[in-house]
Amino acid sequence: MQSIENVGNGVMRVGAHIADVSYFVHSYTKLDRDEKDCSTIVYFIQCNIPMLPRLLCEEMRLLNPGVDRLAFSVMWDIDSLCEILDHWIGRAVFGSYCKFSYQNAQEIIEGTFKRNKTISNDTGFAGLHGQFKWQDIIVDIQNVHKIAKHRRESRFGNGALKLNSWALLLSLQNLRDNLKDDPPLFDIIVLYATKLMRLATYFCTG
């Protein structure tokens, strides 16, 4: 779940939030042991087997609109140039005011969203909660998109690797072929090439 708030002086406070399950699952309890045995959610075509009891994972911990939930949050203060000024990590109480499907959010980004369209829970499109208006939602999503896009471009501009790039894969293969008699040297070169990426703290994964 994401949030954005204008804190003044051209600074936006952007947040990423996930449900704080640790509030409900205490160490060394039966629930904790059962959770470790399950390890993860198992997905099938028509259903899934949750890691936690359904009441907990589908009701009590979900960041549903209009309900305050316990969350683990990361907050960034970002200036008008989309540069990160400060950040905060910790537990919080999070209240969502709207839930969108990916399609709804994409329509807002592309400017094709119609505020008078039929509201449908089937598409993940729900009503507003709190004092917010549709124009607030549209502006917030567009601002989050602008910041995320800029941070992504900045990350790749500073040398982040696009592992799905054929050019990168071919370059690494050519380098490996040229250094086939000295494998350790290839490993050292790649290590130095990715050093900054490994040490970086990313705003988003892109």
UniProtKB/TrEMBL annotation:
<dbReference type="GO" id="GO:0000175">
    <property type="term" value="F:3'-5'-RNA exonuclease activity"/>
</dbReference>
<dbReference type="Pfam" id="PF00773">
    <property type="entry name" value="RNB"/>
</dbReference>
<dbReference type="InterPro" id="IPR001900">
    <property type="entry name" value="RNase_II/R"/>
</dbReference>
<feature type="domain" description="RNB">
    <location>
        <begin position="1"/>
        <end position="206"/>
    </location>
</feature>
<dbReference type="GO" id="GO:0003723">
    <property type="term" value="F:RNA binding"/>
</dbReference>
<dbReference type="GO" id="GO:0006402">
    <property type="term" value="P:mRNA catabolic process"/>
</dbReference>
<dbReference type="GO" id="GO:0000932">
    <property type="term" value="C:P-body"/>
</dbReference>
<dbReference type="InterPro" id="IPR012340">
    <property type="entry name" value="NA-bd_OB-fold"/>
</dbReference>
<dbReference type="InterPro" id="IPR050180">
    <property type="entry name" value="RNR_Ribonuclease"/>
</dbReference>
<protein>
    <recommendedName>
        <fullName>RNB domain-containing protein</fullName>
    </recommendedName>
</protein>
